[in-house]
Write a structure and sequence with these properties.
Elements: H1 2-14, H2 16-54, E1 58-61, H3 96-104, E2 109-123, E3 126-135, H4 137-143, H5 146-149, E4 150-153, E5 164-168, H6 169-175, E6 182-187, E7 192-201, H7 206-211, E8 212-216, H8 217-223, E9 232-237, H9 243-254, E10 257-260, H10 261-264, H11 266-304, H12 306-314, H13 319-354, E11 356-357, E12 366-367, H14 374-400, H15 404-411
Parallel strand pairs: 3-8, 5-7
Antiparallel strand pairs: 1-9, 1-10, 2-3, 2-6, 2-9, 4-7, 5-8, 6-7, 11-12
Helix pairs in contact: 1-13, 2-11, 2-13, 2-14, 11-13, 11-14, 12-15, 13-14
Main location: membrane
Domain MacB-like periplasmic core: 19-252
Family: Belongs to the ABC-4 integral membrane protein family. LolC/E subfamily.
């Protein structure tokens, strides 16, 4: 093997310029593929982390996953229904204390109850439609990051102010209101109640900053005329990988629809999968192009070293050894390119991680999300070695099949 490797190294050194170009081609392919993979996975992880922090890991809502079965369907084989009228009943999760107690027995995480509804916020003669959410402030802070989004006041003040209200800064700007001002909220049924603004938040999402408000749960239940009723339970798990299992068990236990963060963003997860497939396809294409350079140099060496091949065969070298020499030449170029490309990829990734951006006054300066993973280097190097091996194997087969007598006759 050492003899074959020395012969391969000698062949490569005789065409140093072409060898360097081929090595650079592989290095660029590996380096840019590693940098691209680091950026793509980093952006995916950053977006997923932001998404997970922004929404509950599991949310139980006052809906049924399947429509309720009508009593007549259990008696008759074929039934047609006409003029069905819904029950005159308030919608929501009844006995929230009992439901929360049942979940706390086995859920490894934090729970918070909510009651959401539509209301009109009025101040200084202007009206804004709002989604009003009644919460227990301490429990809400354990399942959401609203504390980090506060710009004025404190979210905890909802617990000490009976009719406190926290709204988005965009809504306050439209109304000309500020912390300490008293506003009026009117429900869809016409019930009006005065609230005092105790805080302003900014999430960067216009729909939330203009149309979302938080108030104490009891005050919202009175305004919406739903005493002792909630319409959702938010769960923040210590282990997010259990989200689907927790949602399924909670749905079986309570009978209400439970949605995990993965189910809520199923389309987004599929888009990430497709994007990763596209990314690795592009990476493979880059390295295949680099493989053409290796194919070119090995083919040239085979053509130029035809007399050497004849001599080696005359000395008793079998076809397998001849073929192995030229495959080794391709692999050596691939290995050198993979090593240089790994260093280049690490350098590019490290540099991109230092690039910082500032978009608006409301968004803090941020940087490119780069994720360093040894898997990226392994995959890129393996693809490089595979393309190098194939590029060396094709001309190697031709070299192994050459007839030494024909070569020597042609040379003479």
């Amino acid at each position: 093997m050492m003899l074959l490797l020395r012969i391969a190294a000698t062949h490569i050194r005789t065409r140093m310029r072409q060898t360097v170009v081929s090595v650079l081609g592989v290095a660029l392919g590996v380096g840019f593929s590693v940098a691209m993979a680091s950026l793509m996975e980093g952006s995916q992880r950053d977006f997923t982390a932001t998404l997970i922090d922004a929404i509950p890991h599991v949310e139980i809502v006052d809906e049924q996953r399947a429509p309720a079965e009508q009593p007549a369907s259990t008696v008759y084989d074929a039934v047609a229904y006409y003029g069905l009228r819904p029950k005159e009943d308030l919608r929501g999760i009844r006995n929230p204390t009992e439901a929360l107690a049942a979940l706390r027995d086995w859920v490894d995480g934090k729970l918070a109850q909510r009651l959401s509804g539509q209301a009109v916020l009025r101040y200084s003669g202007q009206d804004i439609g709002m989604t009003l959410t009644g919460v227990d402030p301490k429990r809400e802070l354990s399942v959401s990051n609203i504390r980090d989004d506060m710009r004025k006041g404190s979210f905890e003040d909802l617990g000490t102010t009976a009719n406190g209200l926290v709204i988005g800064d965009k809504a306050a700007e439209r109304l000309g209101a500020d912390v300490g001002d008293t506003v009026t909220l009117t429900s869809a049924s016409g019930v009006a109640k005065r609230f005092k603004i105790v805080g302003l938040f900014h999430t960067g999402i216009t729909t939330s900053d203009e149309g979302l408000a938080y108030a104490p749960l009891k005050a919202v239940q009175i305004l919406l005329e739903k005493p002792d009723i909630i319409n959702s339970i938010a769960i923040r798990l210590n282990n997010i990988s259990q989200a689907n299992d927790v949602a399924a068990r909670a749905e079986r236990q309570l009978g209400y629809k439970a949605i995990s963060w993965e189910e809520a963003n199923e389309g987004l997860m599929e888009a990430f999968f497709v994007r990763n497939v596209i990314m690795y396809t592009v990476v493979g294409a880059i390295l295949v192009v680099a493989g053409f350079g290796i194919f070119n140099i090995v083919s040239t060496i085979v053509h130029e070293k035809a007399r050497d091949i004849a001599i080696l065969k005359s000395l008793g070298f079998p076809e397998a050894d001849i073929q192995q020499i030229f495959v080794l030449e391709g692999l050596v170029i691939g290995i050198l390119g993979a090593l240089a490309g790994s260093a280049l990829g690490f350098g590019l990734s490290s540099y991109m991680a230092t690039i910082r951006f500032e978009f608006t006054q409301d968004v803090e300066m941020t940087h490119l999300p780069i994720f360093f993973s040894g898997t990226h280097y392994i995959i890129a190097c393996l693809l490089a070695l595979f393309s190098s091996g194939i590029a060396g194997y094709i001309p190697a087969r031709k070299a192994a099949r050459l007839n030494p007598v024909d070569i020597i006759r042609g040379a003479t």
